[in-house]
Design a protein that fits this description.
By secondary structure, the chain is mainly α. About 75% of the residues lie in helices and about 0% in strands. The protein has 8 helices and no strands. The longest helix is centred in the last third of the chain and has 25 residues. It is globular.
């Protein structure tokens, strides 16, 4: 893959990479760091990509690994100031009820919902990205849909 082709592919995948990172990391700065590190590693390891048609799957897997590395590194107490800033964001109505419900899902389900519904990856691609069997992906997506239904119906009752 040439440098120009890499740049074009990255530009096409940029929003998708951010969405995937946001499904794992809640802090925008951490998301940007994860995507940036992933792009750097991908460029350095570009020679290991055997088939260019699998670029999206390959780069998504790298981003997910970078997100998990940041999660491990950031296992710390959240400062009170950051907590209050984030609480204010949720209360201002900046996000849809669906987005807030997705963010309440356990991390493994959040990632699946983001990859499948928001980014359009199919079950087989997700299976390759996460190194999980296709049947497991299907059952987790089913569980995520059930939880989202419950969360959204609770929201309707509260309104």
């Amino acid at each position: 893959m040439t440098r120009e082709k890499f740049i074009a592919e990255v530009r096409d995948a940029e929003a998708m990479l951010y969405h995937v990172s946001k499904s794992i990391l809640k802090n925008d700065t951490d998301c940007a760091d994860a995507v940036q590190e992933a792009l750097l590693k991908a460029y350095e390891k570009l020679h290991t990509l055997k088939h260019e048609e699998f670029f999206r799957t390959w780069i998504t897997r790298i981003v997910i690994h970078e997100c998990y590395k940041i999660c491990k590194k950031n296992k710390k107490i959240v400062p009170y100031e950051e907590y209050t800033e984030n609480a204010g964001m949720w209360e201002e109505g900046r996000y849809t009820h669906l987005y807030l419900a997705i963010m309440e899902l356990p991390e493994e389900l959040r990632v699946l919902v983001t990859l499948y519904y928001l980014e359009g990856f199919d079950i087989k691609e997700i299976s390759e990205i996460l190194s999980v069997r296709e049947g497991t992906i299907k059952s987790r997506l089913s569980r995520a849909r059930r939880l989202l239904r419950e969360l959204l119906s609770e929201e309707e009752v509260l309104c």
